[in-house]
Amino acid sequence: MSSSTDTKSIHEFLAENPDVDVSKAWARCYSILTDIKNKMAEQFNNLEKDATCEGREYYTSINGEFEGSFNAWSGDDCEWLVNSWLGNRKASILDMNATCYLGQKTDIPHFVMVFGTVPNLFFYFDFIPRSNIMVDEAYLDKYYAPINDEYLALRGNPNFQWNVSHGTYMRTLTNPSTQSLTADLTDENIDILEEYAHRMLDHWLGWYKNATPVAEVDRPALQEYDHTVRRLCYQRDPMNRLAEKVFGADKVDEMLRVRIGTEQIERAKTY
Prior knowledge:
Layout: H1 10-16, H2 23-41, E1 48-49, E2 59-60, E3 67-75, E4 78-87, E5 94-102, E6 110-117, E7 121-128, H3 137-143, H4 148-155, E8 160-162, H5 168-172, E9 179-183, H6 187-209, H7 219-235, H8 239-247, H9 249-260, H10 262-268
Antiparallel strand pairs: 1-3, 2-3, 3-4, 4-5, 5-6, 6-7, 7-9, 8-9
């Protein structure tokens, strides 16, 4: 059992407070994420909901312990725009997200934002880089330098504590934009994160509107990289173990294929 909130697992947080009603937080946080998803969707033409989402607008586990919603769209230069949630609004646990994996017309970072309750407030944010920023200084300076002051301001806010993923792959995703935070579940803290969420969205929208096109010859390799990262982000998430206890391993495998967008990847790939 970890004594530090930095390294405490989701399972440990839940064991301490397993039966908290987080319905109010769900309504507020999921509304924020849906608004962000809608603003991202406005950038693309011909978005269509993926057929694999049918019947998943609202669903429950057989035992009724978990409930959720999964919706994903593709079209134009958007490969996989997701708005989803999963958990139990009466029993502390929620995982809610808005995610946009772009196509290869541009190389601006993918957008990942998660609100959660454990039942403490959890917040994860990431601009997933599409170049090796350990050596690509131009990419680093273009997309991560502009948010550095805002990143440090939130990271230094005493209301929030860093939370380390127990998954080694999830920690490899850490970059100069990554926020992985816990805090007391209060309206004040949600207010702070809502403001931060929209500032990051504004940066992303500005980059997208002014993006330089990727050369056609470079797009297949970028797509292969994008698809690999997208698959691994979902497959290697430690949260899957919690879902397996509720849905069973076979059902979670099916859910992961939908969340990854396996069919969409097969339709789109050019490599």
